[in-house]
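Hi V.,

You were right to ask for the full record rather than a summary. Here it is.
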Amino acid sequence: MSHQNKVATRKKSPWGAVGYVLALIAVAVINGCATVPGTQVADQVAPLTPERELKDGELLNVSIQVFDPGELPEDLDKRKGLSPEIREAESRFAPIHLKHTLQRAGYWGVVRVVPDRDVGSEVLVQGAILYSDGENASVQITVTDARNVIWYQRTYAETARREEHLGVEMEKEDVFQDLFNTIANDLAVYRNSLSIREIEEIRKIAAIKYASSMAPDVFGSYIATDENGLVSLKRLPAQDDPMFERVEAVKVRDDLLVDTINDYYDIYYHDLWEPYSNWRRYRHEEVATLRKLERQALTRQILGITAIVGAIALGAASDYETAVRTRPLQDVLIAGGAYSVYSGHQVRQESKINKEAIEELGSSFSSEAEPLTIEV
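Predicted structure:
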C-alpha cells in the first residue's frame, strides 16, 4: 500500500498587501521630511551677561571669520529656490549678526568680522553653514584661541516658528536669535572657565604671534609650538623694544583697516536686512502651505490606494458566494479609492503653484543680494 505525503499549505492573506502598501507610504513620508543636522537649540534662550562690568584686562578680543557658505545640491529641483548667491549672502549676514550679539553680552573686548583667518586674533570664531532655507538653520562653530587651543566645535540648529518672523529687529532680534544666543552663551561659559592668568597669556601670545608674522627673524623665537600645534610663550620683548613698538604701530593701522572693513560689513548687513527678512518670512509661508498641500495629497492617495487594495483583498479572500454578495461593496471601494487617488493627484498639481512661488522668491532675493555681496 503506497502512502503519499500530504503537504499542508496555507493560503496567504491578501490583507498583508494592505500593510505592505501602508509601510511603503510611511517610508515615503519619512523620506520626504527635511533632515537638519545638529541638535535643536532651546526656545526663548536668554543671553548670559556678567554679574559685574569686566575690567579691560579681563576682556578678550574676538575675530569672527566670514562663514563657509557650504554646498547646495547639484539638482536644481532639490535646491527648492535656494542659490549660491543666497548662501554667500548668509555667510556674511550670520557672522555680522553674531558680532552684534556678542557685543551686547559684555564679556568681550572688540568684536570684529574678518574676511580670512586673523593671525593676531585672541579668540577666533569660525563657522560653516550646514543647512539654511529660511525656516531651518544649522551651523557648525569652531572656537580657537591664540594658543591654538580649540575651545570646542559644536553644531547648532533651529527651526523657526512662523510667528518669529514678525518679531525681528535689526542687530537685536533675528528669526534665529535662539541659535545666536546659544552660541554667545557657550562662548561666555568657556571664557568664564579661564583664569585671569590664562586670559593674560592668550593676549600676550596673540601679540607675539602677530609680531612674529611681521618680523619672524626677530620675534619667532619668542614663542614655541609643540607637536600638537599648541603655542606657548617663551619670553616677552623689553618694554622699550623699538622693533616691537613699530610692530604695535603697524597692528594699530591693521586694526583700523579691519574696523573700516567692518563699517562696510555693517552697511551691507543693514541693506540686506529687509530683503533677507522678507525672503525668509514669505518663503516660510509658502513652504508651510506647500507642506500642507502635499500632506493632503498624500493622505488622499493613501486612503485611495488602501481602499483599492482592500477591495481586491476582500474579493480574493472570500469564497464564491461571499465574493458575489460583497461585489457592490468592492465596486464602491474601488470607485471611491480611484477618485481619492485622482483627487490627491489634483492637489499635487495645485501645489506646483507654491513650488513656483518659492522658486520666484529665491530668484528675486538672489538678484537683490548679489549686488550687495562684497569681496575684501
